[in-house]
Amino acid sequence: MQKHDALPLKDFIEYAPAEMLSRSEQFYTEIKRRHSIRQFSDRPVPQTIIENCIKAAGTAPNGANHQPWHFVAIHSRQVKTQVREQAEAHETGFYEGRGGAQWLDALKPLGTDADKPYLEHAPWLIAIFSQKNTQQEDGNKQSNYYVHESVGIATGFLINALHHCGLATLTHTPKPMSFLSKICDRPDNERPYMLLIVGYPAEDATVPRHAINKKPLGEIATFI
Ligand code: IYR
Questions:
Q1: Residue 6, domain member (yes or no)
Q2: Structural domain includes residue 51
Q3: Would you call 218 exposed, middle or buried from its count of C-beta atoms within 10 A (0-12, 13-18, 19+)?
Q4: Burial of 219 (0-12, 13-18, 19+ CB in 10 A)
Q5: What pTM value is reported for the model?
Q6: Confidence band (pLDDT; 50, 70, 90) for 117?
Q7: Ligand 1 atom closest to residue 113's alpha carbon, by position in its atom list
Q8: Which mutation among 37, 88, 112 tests ligand 1's pocket best, with the greatest number of atoms within 8 A of CB?
């Protein structure tokens, strides 16, 4: 291995086999009650919780540790209204035919449509941006690697962190998403990756039956 500066691994925890088994079961039980929901309460959520979850997302493995992501946590009612208006305008075109018959058909069991009131009701929207390169202080551009993979993993960490502290989320990818760059005033080296809606579920929140159906292990994994 090439010479590089390194520290001893100090914070790894080894669990006894029985505890390892129990933790694997517990984690599965915990994560399988995460559901994407579309009815949010306007109950406030403290900013510190969102900050901690973003810090957790920032620990995700990524290409060359360039951490090619930026999170814009939107709490301002005014900004949320802008996001809703523009997302709904794009989604209306999508649901009126731009999505194509096949895609629109695939969405029918989810009951989604162009109406996105949760973009205003939820206490937080987190716009996630990917950085194809990073502008350094000396003006040079640093290339980033495996950007989509890296930002995808960080987004997964974020969703998991938010679920872990008792918040519901919805992943939203309006198409096109470029309006988020403008609203959030992001630089040209960044592209919007995803919008997360975050908050408490409304009292009458539902989960589409279609979304509950997860493929069994035998279908998603092969052991060789
Ligand atoms: N972006 C649209 C459509 C949509 C697409 C997929 I793939 C979904 O899983 C759900 C919705 C919308 O948010 O309504």
A1: no
A2: yes
A3: exposed
A4: exposed
A5: 0.96
A6: very high
A7: 14
A8: 112
What are the structure tokens assigned to 201, written together?
Answer: 């579920």
Residue with CA closest to ligand 1 atom 9: 107
Alpha carbon of 112 to ligand 1 centroid (Å): 7
pLDDT tens-digit series, residues 40-50? 999 999 999 99
Which tens digits make up the pLDDT trace of 171-219?
999 888 999 999 999 999 999 999 999 999 999 999 999 999 999 999 9
Q: Is 116 a domain residue?
A: yes
Full domain range(s) for residue 199: 37-203
The answer to whether 163 touches 169, Cβ cutoff 8 Å, is yes
Expressed in angstroms and rounded, the spacing between residue 173 Cα and the centre of ligand 1 is 7
Phi-psi region of 118 (alpha: psi -120 to 50; beta: other; left: phi over 0): alpha
pLDDT at 76: 98
* Position 65 in a domain: yes
The chain-wide mean pLDDT, for the chain, equals: 97
Phi, psi of 202 (to 5 degrees): -65, 160
Number of compact structural domains in the chain: 1
At 99, which CATH number?
3.40.109.10
What is the chain's percent helix, strand, coil content, to nearest 5?
45, 15, 40
- Quickly tell me which residue has 């998403």 as its tokens: 177
Q: Tell me the chain's radius of gyration from C-alpha atoms.
A: 20
Indicate if the pLDDT at residue 142 is higher than 90: yes
Beta partners for residue 135, in sequence order? 141
